[in-house]
Amino acid sequence: MLTAVCAMRCSLKYFRSISKSAMDSGYQQANVVILPSHLAKDFEAFCRSNPAPLPLLYGSQSGETSCPPLAKQADIRTDISQYCVYQEGRLVETVSSLQNYITQPSSRTASEQPVCQWSDMVCFYLGCSFGFEGRLKKAGVPVRNVEQGRNVSMYRTSVPCIPTGVFSCPLVVSMRPIPAGLLDTAVEVTHIKPQAHGAPLHIGDPALLGIQDLSRPDYGERVELQPGDVSVFWACGVTAIEAILSSKPSLAFSHSPGCMFLTDLPDSASSSPITSVELNPDLTPLCFLVSHNPLFYSLASKKAVAKIRQLETIIGEDPGERGIRALFLQDELLRSCLALSHSSSVAITTGFPTHYMHSPPDETDGPPGAIAIATMLLSLGKQVTLVTDRRALEMNQAIINEAVRTGVLKTTIPLVTFEDTGPDSALHFLCHHGDPSKPRYDHLVAIERSGRAEDGNYYNMRGVNIKHLVDPIDDLFIAAKDIAGITTTGIGDGGNELGMGKVKEKVKSLMPNGNLIACVVPADYAITAGVSNWGGYAVACGLYLLHTCPSHQRYLKKGLGLENASPQEQLQDWTANLPSVDKEESILSTLVHFGIRSGKTAHLAMEVDGLTFHPTHSDIITRLVEITVGSATCNP
Predict the structure, then answer these.
(1) Which of 73, 76, 402, 434 is the most buried (most CB within 10 A)?
(2) Is the pTM of this model over 0.85?
(3) CA atoms in the 13 A half-sphere facing the CB of 308
């Protein structure tokens, strides 16, 4: 006797494309790919290597027409409303049944279409994002494609899947417009459905995926964004169709995009492990806006976010009683770390010549933090460049060389200067051939770097003008505001540092000499710390936390590659490149050796901003690393 579900399958057979009826059917749906058996092993490995677009629910035996774990009474040859037929990697037709392709060859003439021995075919059933649309609606998230009565929009991206065997193809994504205020809800609802593609892989500007025109989807139909909506992209099982097209099997079949296979499995949290899974709530991703130009959001787990917020609290301590807490902005550290995690080429600048009466005039705050950030970025595979003043070029090169010799740095870092030689100097420095569409860097970081005041001068905290000792590196941050794809971070502890223009009004009203010394050049993110070096240490720790966060790593890698694939050697390298008491004491000793003095006292001693390395700075470093990796590894 047919079950109620089997009867529903029959009744839905001819209208199971994306429609309100399909979404509300209450049963999980699946993408289907049917391949010759000699390709089955490669395709299964391809799915395992690309789990987000190709979540494998079931792989049949050769010749099997049913799929017992998903639908016991099914016949895959007839139970999809529309199939695609491919020959030699070309879509040749769509049909409502595969029966004509599996008739015995002896009953056909040579002029007729190719047929297959069904006993030599293997069916793959893959998770489908339609499986979470009902949940989105139930959570109060509008499903625009359903509202508009259209199939979901699907796009071929410029992101390559991980190739396996004969299979290699670009990632395909589906797009659903989501109101900005409901992004966290949409992420959380879909995160618990990993077998229905899970959480989004990209939120924001489609051009970052190589999608140039949202109005022209490669599959499905155009879905209109409403005011306040953000484009949200999920991995899509249509990636499997691209795999067929690229591998060119002699004969293959798939569902037609939008016409899914309806399983027997109720779409409920407790019904089956393929509809949803029990996940650690600490790993639920949260969504954060990282960039306005281009529009881009990133994800990180609740656990990672909580730890980075703990780091932010620690570096906000103010043992020097400078009143720095008044400048604090929540989550600037987190957002900066997210942006840096997505970066590929970072320029870092530091240098505050507060001691104009000494040679060198620089202070011990800034360089250690800059090197800590650079060390972690290099460990993560980023390109790093240090930007310095011409007067300090030789000294800073010697400091870098010594840091390499002592093992604080694994390798030397390019050191460059910037000169204002004309109106386009900053543009040519930041972009290849001065072309704003070809930025040389995607993130600029200033840590304890003299910042330009409202009158165009540069002041130390005592209100002394030190402009004659400062190159106009501020111009790079000003120019970066108008170059899409370059994000900026400023780290400071007094308000007169480059990037602190974001909080200039607070500096003017709350900090000593604020009206005079306040930097007016803003950064996208202004990280305030009791000592700027601490901000650099926290950035390094935050990057480590993000790169060991499964939710963020999945988003960073677009759901491609084997899950939990970071080799132990890589994790050990990241850990070894965190700040440590030994390394920071070593670099501070190097600075003192070169005659660089404490900022507040001008002492040529093991102190920063008048605070001795032991116990103040060493204690901060220990606590930051304990939060990051635990007390067992506080001095790697």
Answers:
(1) 76
(2) yes
(3) 29
Say whether pLDDT at 3 is over 90: no
Alpha carbon distance 437, 34 (integer Å) = 43
pLDDT on residue 20: 39
Identify the burial level of 618 via C-beta atoms within 10 angstroms of its C-beta, where 0-12 means exposed, 13-18 middle and 19 or more buried.
Answer: middle
Q: Quick one: pLDDT band at residue 130, thresholds 50, 70, 90?
A: confident
Summarised one tens digit per residue, pLDDT across range 222-237 is 999 999 999 999 999 9
Strands 285-292 and 56-59: unpaired
Strand locations in 404-524 (E): 415-417, 443-449, 487-492
Give the model's confidence band at 1: pLDDT under 50 very low, under 70 low, under 90 confident, else very high: very low
586: number of Cβ within 10 Å: 16
Query: Do 487 and 290 contact (CB within 8 A), yes or no?
Result: yes
Q: Is the dihedral of CA 616, 620, 621, 622 positive or negative?
A: positive
Q: How far apart are the C-alpha atoms of 475 and 8, rounded to whole Å?
A: 66
- H or E stretch including 87? strand 83-87
If pLDDT is split at 50, 70 and 90, which confidence band does 565 have?
low
Q: Which amino acid is at 532?
A: S
CA distance 231 to 222: 12
C-alpha 87/C-alpha 245 separation (Å) is 9
Residue type, 555: Y
Dihedral, 534, 535, 536, 539 alpha carbons, nearest 10: 120
Termini Cα distance of the chain:
66
Adjacency order of strands within the sheet including 285-292? 153-160, 170-179, 229-235, 202-204, 295-301, 285-292
Q: For residues 2 and 114, what is the distance between their CA atoms, to the nearest angstrom?
A: 33
**If DSSP states are collapsed to H, E and C, what string results for 493-560?**
CCCCECEEHHHHHHHHHHCCCHHHHCECCECCEEEECCCHHHHHHHHHHHHHHHHCCHHHHHHHCCCC
Q: What crossing angle do the helices spanning 581-593 and 618-629 adopt, rounded to 10°? A: 150
Q: What one-character-per-residue DSSP string does 332-391 give? A: HHHHHHHHHHT-SEEEEEEE----TTSSS--BSSSHHHHHHHHHHHHHTT-EEEEEE-GG
In the block, tokens 């003017």 appear at: 508
Cβ within 8 Å of residue 592, ≥6 positions away: 364, 604, 605, 606
Rounded Cα–Cα distance for residues 446 and 29 (Å): 50
